[in-house]
Every structure is written in C-alpha cells, then in structure tokens.
Predict the 3D structure of the following.
Amino acid sequence: MIQSVDRALHILELLKNNPKGLGVTEISKSLDVAKSTAHRLLMSLEGYGYVQKFGKDASYRLGLKFIEMNQVVVENLNVVEIARPYLEKLSADTGEIVHLVMLDGYEIVYIDKVDNNSTIRIYSQIGRRAQLHCTGVGKAILAHFDKASITRFIENNDFRSYTQNTIIDGQALLSELEKIRLDEISFDNEEHEAGIQCVAAPIKDHRNHVQYAISVTGPLTRMTKEKLETCIPKLRETAQNISKQLGSIF
C-alpha cells in the first residue's frame, strides 16, 4: 500500500515537471515498473481527477482537481498563525518591536505585534489603522500596486502630515515607491511618529500579490545606521520565509 502511494506521488511529481504531458511508457520507465502497473495507478489518479488524458497519443497531465485543492488551501491559510514564529524570532534577533500589517482599502491594519518589553511607547496596537504614505509597512505595500493604482492613489489623496518628515508631495512619494519596489525594503524615517524609525518589507502571497508587510521598529537612538545594516538581512529573510509559507515563488 505504501509503495503504491509512493509511486502515485512520484507520478504527480513527474507530471508537475512535464506540463506538456507524458505517456504510460515514459511514466513506467521512470518508475521502473511494468506498463500495466503504471496504467493502473494512472487510472486511479484519473478517477479522482488528479490526472487527465489528452490528445491522440493519450498522454497524461495534471488534472483540474489541483485547482480545487489550491483554492481550499488558500482559503484556509491563517497569515497571523503562519507568521507568528517568524516574527518572534525576528524580534528576538533584532531586539526591537516587530509588526505584521494587512492592506484594507487605502489603509493598513496592524494584525500582529511582537513587543520587546521596551518602555518606548509607540502608535501601533493590534487592530489600529494607519495611512499608507507615512509608514514603512504602508509604503512597502503601496509600492507593489500597479502603476495605474499608484497614480490614482496619488491624485486622489490629500496627504496628511504627521511630522516634519512626512512625505506629502506626490512626485516625491512616487520616486520613493519606485526605489522601494526595486529594493523590496521600505523605511519610515520619523514620518509617522517623531523619534521612531522602522524598516519594512513586503509579504507576497501565492499570486505574488502584496497584501501584507512586516517591520522592525525602534527609537531613533537605537535604530542607527549600523543597527539597520544588521536588521535588513534578517528582515528580508523573514519576509521571504513567510511569503514562501503563503505560496509565493520568488
């Protein structure tokens, strides 16, 4: 029984790597089994919709069942549960507060936070909202809007100034977003709260869309150039690990 399961999974892997399809003979040779054995396994997989037969040469490809399975997996992903251990490690490694946010309209919502027991009080708390243009996490997400959506965002928003560093000029924001999109790293240089700096990175889902972002946040006195240089590689790795768990292929 275990051998049959192993062979069936091997067939699925073969077909995944050969999207144009394979015949029974090719599959049996790869499995090192008789054609009758390969045909029996294929018939069983076909019956459940995991493979389907195409063309005059009766080659096999992956079936439509995988679309259904993919949808079920995606619908049951819990990004907070998936991200939590990575956020805890990032906070421990950097010694700073770590946030996870999600996009909601033209705002971000803080959906998880790992504190570092600091006495520094900052704006964020789970469930709280913030604007896209003045936060590192917001800009990390905004930078991955398509060009038309970014243009609409800039044209239809009156950017509120929270500090003297808040970017309120549309062209200046556009230039920064272009850099963020290339670097996959975003900064909040006291743009939302005076004395607070953060560095953020986008989280990509199974479609490589950006609906989430994470950040490392701390007081300006600790977030020095040297500290940022050590934080950024850890932040990138964390963002990539969470993205992979959500099905992203970089």
